[in-house]
Amino acid sequence: MRFISRKAHAMLDYMTGILLIAAPWLFNFADVDAAKWVAIAVGAMILVMSFITDYEGGGAKTLSMGTHLTMDVLAGIFLAASPWLFNFDEFVYLPHLIVGIFEIIAGLCTDRVSQHSHTHHVDNVRHAH
């Protein structure tokens, strides 16, 4: 069931990326190196991926929406599992687990076809003539 619009997904992407980068200081785990760097790296990846995605929030529009959503699910699985993969679960796990699950849901529940996609544009050109 795809109930998240591409525009809403774009806004969520940028907010999530910024939240993850700030999370080590917001949630007091900046002194746990693995936890801090996983959050920062995934947050930065989300921001870069968002900028290059062919959707309402993209700038470069080179990455397809389908690929973006697949990467969201994979990043969510990685983020949710990271406290146990990198052995920092005894210090902090909820921010990574919660945002990871959120990423998985967002990836599975967002419209896959971008309003700005090249195939959509070609179809509109054909129908206009």
The end-to-end span amounts to 34 Å
Proportion of helical residues: 55-70%
Uncertain runs: 119-127
Number of strands: 0
Which class best fits the helix and strand makeup?
mainly alpha
Describe the global form: elongated
| Biggest beta-sheet profile | none
Order of helices and strands: HHHHH
Tally of helical runs: 5
Whole-number tally of structural domains: 1
Summarize model confidence as the mean pLDDT.
Answer: 90
Question: How many whole angstroms does the radius of gyration measure?
Answer: 16 Å
Beta content comes to: under 5%
What can you see in these coordinates?
The protein has 129 residues and is mainly α. 68% of the residues lie in helices and 0% in strands. It has helices spanning 6-26, 33-52, 65-85, 94-108, 118-128.
Topology of helices and strands:
Elements: H1 6-26, H2 33-52, H3 65-85, H4 94-108, H5 118-128
Helix pairs in contact: 1-2, 2-3, 3-4
Summarize the model shown:
The protein is mainly alpha-helical and 129 residues long. Helix content is 68%, strand content 0%.
Distinctive features:
mainly alpha; 68% helix; 129 residues
